[in-house]
Amino acid sequence: MNSAASTAKRIVIFASGAGSNAQKIIDHFRDSDISVQMIVCNKPQAGVLSIAEREGIPTLLIEKERFFRGDAYVPVFRDMSIDLIVLAGFLWKIPQALIDAFPRKIINIHPALLPKYGGKGMYGAFVHEAVIAAGEVQSGITIHYVDEHYDHGDIVFQTACPVVEGDTPEILAKRIHELEHAHYPRVIEELLTTKR
Length: 196
Ligand code: GAR
Description:
Elements: H1 3-7, E1 9-14, H2 20-29, E2 34-41, H3 47-55, E3 59-61, H4 64-69, H5 74-79, E4 84-87, H6 96-101, E5 106-110, H7 124-133, E6 138-145, E7 155-162, H8 169-193
Parallel strand pairs: 1-2, 1-4, 2-3, 4-5
Antiparallel strand pairs: 5-6, 6-7
Helix pairs in contact: 2-8, 7-8
Bound molecules: glycinamide ribonucleotide.
């Protein structure tokens, strides 16, 4: 085995929204030993699919029935020998079969300081609305391993930003997105290149 083969890592991104985090991850790993093998999505109209098409990355549009009551696509990901599944704005719960097949190999990013403002229904603008309504003076991002509960597994990285007077959910979302873009690709790289 040559050294290039032994250091090469393969990731799959699960995303179902605009895909700004997916884009940053793709940009970060362009021409590197870490390759984005596939974008997995559950919404046919999601912006992230246009990003995948432009970038020439294969996509997999998953079906609810197979994901939750079938094989959860485990054989597909096993065949690809992936090193990390990266959730970036993917809102479906991850089935137990997939968690069992990839222990500590699935991570998620959440746009708040977990354990606060997490759980079912807490995503995107709903998170920022709740943070502002509660009068929090700071929010932030959390990158964590995925377990069987929403927004719950061991935390890998957190960082905060201020919430200031007059912030709307849109303004706060922009500040949070900037944090996500600055840190998620770097944290993914660290997870893949340092022995844990
Ligand atoms: C991100 O802010 C991410 O933290 C959030 O969805 C957004 C996706 O944005 N995820 C959650 O709320 C998960 N509970 P993007 O499509 O532009 O990357």
